[in-house]
Write a structure and sequence with these properties.
Elements (H helix, E strand, L loop, with lengths): L1 E3 L4 E8 L4 E6 L63 E5 L8 H11 L2 E4 L1 H5 L20 E5 L5 H7 L4 E6 L6 H4 L2 E4 L2 H15 L1
Parallel strand pairs: 4-5, 4-6, 6-7, 7-8
Antiparallel strand pairs: 1-2, 2-3
Helix pairs in contact: 1-5
The structure holds flavin-adenine dinucleotide.
Length: 206
């Protein structure tokens, strides 16, 4: 997001054409202009108690009868852990490569790391994981300290959701998988063999 200072126009950058290009959206005619930013897209600033601002009270009259959306209840999924993928400092994610039955081992690893369990979009479409756990362009944008991607190829739509993670560990059988271009640490191998080894090593250390 940026502002074209001479024309005072807001430039809203967002993925287009399935995430293959980043497009600047400009609204030249209508005012006011506003934009929202997804949580975790940029790191939070440290609090600065010296900063000053003024609060503007707006006298807003909303007609409840015209609002068609109502939040009836918020339910946290048990699967994604006590904290959701957005709030958790460690996220362990599985993709097509871990298979339908691979999330049991990821749950075990997540418990030992006090992590949330995330996934790629196909695993939501297959019904293996809830939508709330999906990481990426049409899912959640996250910025954990540690992100473990098991059996995830690293398509652009997944990548945009994990770019601001501090450390990315990828486990993939294919050494040329795009996720390795993004990862800080890469393990080439079968996630179904490697995850249980990680679980064993962490249990022994505990
Ligand atoms: C508009 C749009 C929005 C999208 N939004 C999202 C989104 O929000 N999030 C998202 O994730 N996707 C999204 N997608 C889908 C995205 O394009 C990819 O299809 C998806 O990310 C691929 O998921 P995957 O990596 O699990 O599967 P695949 O691309 O099939 O990759 C599976 C990987 O597992 C590896 N593998 C196989 N067996 C093993 C094994 N035993 N051990 C280890 N590795 C193994 C393979 O080498 C491969 O790299 C979107 C697509 C579109 C068009």
């Amino acid at each position: 997001m940026d502002v074209d200072v001479p024309t005072r126009k807001l430039l809203q950058t967002r993925p287009a054409f399935g995430g293959n290009v980043m497009a600047d959206i400009i609204c030249p005619n209508t005012r006011p202009q506003m934009a929202t930013v997804r949580p975790n897209v940029m790191p939070r600033l440290k609090p600065d108690p010296g900063r000053k601002c003024s609060a503007v009270k707006v006298d807003l009259k909303l007609d409840a009868r015209k609002t068609r959306t109502k939040v009836l209840e918020t339910i946290k999924s048990a699967r994604t852990g006590a904290k959701g993928v957005e709030e958790s400092d460690v996220v362990v994610s599985g993709g097509r490569g871990v298979g339908d039955d691979g999330f049991a081992m990821l749950d075990e690893l997540a418990k030992l790391l006090n992590a949330a369990v995330g996934c790629s979009r196909p695993m939501v479409e297959k019904g293996c994981m809830p939508k709330a756990a999906q990481v990426g362009q049409s899912g959640k944008t996250i910025s954990p300290t540690l992100y473990i991607a098991a059996g995830i190829s690293g398509c652009i739509q997944h990548e945009v959701g994990i770019r601001s993670s501090k450390v990315i560990v990828a486990i993939n059988t294919d050494p040329s998988a795009p996720i390795f271009n993004l990862a800080d640490f890469g393990i080439v191998g079968d996630a179904k063999a490697i995850i249980p080894l990680l679980v064993k090593a962490l249990r022994e250390k505990a």
